[in-house]
Design goal:
17% of the residues lie in helices and 32% in strands. By secondary structure, the chain is of the alpha+beta class. Helix 1 runs antiparallel to helix 2.
């Protein structure tokens, strides 16, 4: 709206200037001379200022779109965990318990299955993307399912051990957070083989920027007193919700 008004003013001034060229009226020429002086300023207004749309959407002077306040949106940072037998790690079982096929006519699909009697783990790293809103908290969570039995909604405990650092920083000691609740959309479970989501507590974004790195270990905390579900569970996926305020970053390493 603002840009449209400025363009109208600019076009009006141009028309007035054209009339001044052909006008023989001295007062009008004085008036048009003032218009000529204003033209560069008007042109600069059109190209060198931030334009706000509905308060929270901003088109910056260089054309970058920015979302402020309640206009920011959420996005998924997808992770593809993998198992390793190196370094004494204990990987989950690959697929046998959770195998779906086309009625025995195909090879089928599999999941990582986490047992009930030992702590099994997957390892991965995560990099914050360039559209991340600098300094905001990030929200990790686990997608999982069952092949037998119905969990209560609180009796499967997931653990996330991680260390996190921005560009140029040094990795601190790891922290471990636990999740044994489900989001309201799937709580309580009503059957076997459902798509369930357990959210971890938010990870602070203080001091974080684009390309910050998390090094992670995801595990089922079978030693926790709340993990009483007596059957293996299958990992559907792990991802992190983060707040997005731009389409990317202006510079390669900073925003």
């Amino acid at each position: 709206m603002i840009m449209s008004i400025l363009h109208l003013v600019y076009n009006w001034l141009r028309a007035a200037l054209q009339q001044a060229i052909t006008s023989g009226s001295r007062p009008r020429c004085y008036f048009h001379a003032a218009i000529i002086m204003l033209l560069p300023l008007t042109s600069q207004l059109l190209t060198a200022q931030d334009v706000k749309i509905n308060t929270n959407m901003v088109i910056e002077a260089d054309g970058t779109m920015r979302l402020d306040n309640t206009a920011t949106v959420w996005n998924d940072l997808m992770v593809f965990p993998d198992a390793t037998t190196k370094g004494g790690s204990n990987p989950p079982e690959w697929g046998t318990a959770m195998m779906k096929n086309a009625g025995g006519t195909s090879k089928g699909v599999y999941l990582w299955m986490f047992a009930t009697n030992q702590e099994e783990e997957l390892h991965f790293t995560v990099q914050l993307p360039h559209d991340y809103k600098v300094g905001t908290d990030i929200h990790p969570h686990v997608h999982w399912t069952t092949v037998a039995g119905i969990p209560s909604g609180t009796n499967v405990v997931w653990g996330l051990e991680y260390t996190l650092v921005a560009i140029g920083g040094s990795f601190p000691n790891t922290l471990t957070i636990l999740a044994n609740n489900l989001i309201p959309e799937c709580n309580p479970p009503t059957g076997t083989g459902q798509h369930l989501i357990s959210p971890f507590s938010p990870v602070s974004g203080a001091g974080l920027g684009i390309s910050s790195i998390l090094v992670c270990r995801l595990f089922r905390a079978t030693g926790n007193v709340s993990d009483t579900f007596p059957n293996a569970v299958g990992l559907l996926g792990f991802d992190i919700h983060y707040e997005q305020d731009t389409q990317g970053s202006r510079d390669q390493w900073t925003k």
